[in-house]
Write a structure and sequence with these properties.
The protein is mainly alpha-helical. It folds into 2 domains: 39 residues; 30 residues, no CATH class. It has 3 helices and 2 strands. The two termini are 39 Å apart.
């Protein structure tokens, strides 16, 4: 698995070395497109309503992970 990971890393690195970051419009646009694609603009809450405000999105994310990683009291633990 390590050899496969190294091979893919080297392949990506070679592409970067070959193409280079020449500070061109192409590289700037690819960065902007990647940032837009990775941005979360809306989330659906438990009531099936879309939340688009940044504060509401942050609250939904925090609540989701708090619920995901909280301990639920399911009763006594068997010995």
């Amino acid at each position: 698995m390590d050899q496969i990971a190294v091979m893919w890393y080297q392949k990506a690195r070679m592409d970067q070395l070959r193409d280079g970051d020449r500070n061109t419009k192409f590289f700037h646009m690819s960065t902007i497109i990647r940032r837009r694609f990775n941005r979360i603009e809306a989330l659906r809450d438990r009531d099936d309503l879309w939340c688009t405000e940044e504060t509401m999105i942050k609250r939904l994310v925090v609540e989701h992970f708090r619920d995901l990683f909280s301990v639920n009291d399911t009763g006594p633990v068997p010995p």
